[in-house]
Each structure stands twice: as structure tokens, then as C-alpha cells.
Amino acid sequence: MKRFIAFSGGVESTAMCLLYGKGATAVFTDTGSEHAEMYRRINRVENALVEIHGGDFRLIRLRASVTAKGEKVDSLTDYVDRMQFFPSGADRFCTSRFKIAPLDNFLKSEGESELLIGLNADETDREGNYGLLANVHYRYPLQEDGYTRQDCIDLLEQRGLKPDFPAYMRRGGCIFCPFKSKKEYAAMVHLAPEEIDLVRILEEKAQDKRGKYYRIRHNMPAMKDFIQIEKNNLFGDLTPYYDAGEEQYSCGVFCHR
Ligand code: SF4
User: Fold this and answer.
1) 2-164 is classed in which CATH architecture?
2) How many angstroms separate the CA atoms of 134 and 111, rounded?
């Protein structure tokens, strides 16, 4: 039976590739709007794991094809641009359309197969937000084998594969993830200026037909003002932004785990 691993670039999914990846295919669903650092990480992990598994490991990247106002788009950015609507905690179309649907479409044509999902042994009360296909056996090998998050981190540290994402990627591999905190957007101003500028442009283009200024986060200023405020804060204490610390869980099993 074919074995697939839901790969997001984060701790658990990388640990699964290490533990169960020989002969398997890891699948990364690319929203097309991921941070540059995420793409670098995927390439790095792929190269390392192909070597570790003696060439018997594959990592594939899938892109969605989604209709937005009558036109097919293959990136979350293009979708937001056409629909003039950002994903949010309440309407998380980014995950359903750009992470889960492409994976389901791919697996449907793969026959009898298993999909390994990266919930760890600390998370027995949590469920993955994936589709349920009759031809796919969904498995949680980290839970089956008792690997906690700390076990996964230890394993990755031994191999030099622990994610070391910048401070602005504590939540969300995508540049305008609704789960990012204000502090993370501030970190983007200082550490990823080209990416925060893309977010600003997208927010400004999403203003048509809206009575009041539409913000990515309602408790933040408009992105253009926020960027300026943060730039003026250049000589303030930036330490918190440079300390990525432990990544958070808020994005879900397909984003950044
Ligand atoms: S990282 Fe954030 S924006 Fe990207 S798919 Fe996941 S929840 Fe959505």
C-alpha cells in the first residue's frame, strides 16, 4: 500500500518523515503564499531526508486550482485579490481550499493508500481537519508509537532538522495568516520587509465597496500605517521580535506543523 505523509514543514511532520519516511511520499500543499523561509525549509528537509533514507523518500508539492469569480487561480494571494476577502479564524477557506482540497484530490486517484498525520502523543483529544476518503487509511503514528512533541524535537535536533523559523512565523506559513499576532506582523516589518509590503498591497486592493477601511486584523491599524509606526520604532527594543521561541499550535495540522 502506498504511504503518504501530510508534510507541513513543522516539527511533527518532519519527525514523521524521519521515522516513517523510508519508501514513503511526503506531500506539501503549497498555498502559493507561503513565506520564502518556508520554501527554503521544504527544500532543506527534502534534501536531508532523501539522503537519510538512501534515496528511498520523495517529497512532492501540490498546488490548488480554485475558481474565483469565474477564473481559476492557484494561489491564496490571487484568490484573496479576486475575492477581496481575507481568510479569518471564522472563515478559514485558506486551509479548506488550499491545503485540504488539493491533498484530497491527489489522494483520490492514488488507490488504496495510507496517510500519516502528525498529531503527537500529547494531543489525544485533538482531531485533524482533513477530508475522509474511502480509499485512504488515516493514521496517527506518533500517537500509536507514543512520541510526544518533546520526543519529536529531540529527534530532529539530533539530525539538525529542528525548524528554526523566524519570529514572524510562530503561527502560519502564509504571509498573511489570520492567526499571526500583531507582534509577528511587527517582526515582518523589520525582518521580512518585502513580504509585509505584499500584505500591505493586498490589503489596499481589498478596499473596494467597503464603507470603512478593511483591515487584516481588526485590532491593528491599516497595514500601511502599521508599517510606518513599526519603522519609526526601529530604535526601540526589538529583542522580542528576534526571538522566535517555540512555534505555536494555532494553525492546525496542515499548516506549519
Ligand atoms: S498558514 Fe494560516 S493562512 Fe496559511 S493555510 Fe494555514 S491557517 Fe491559512
Assistant:
1) 3-Layer(aba) Sandwich (3.40)
2) 10
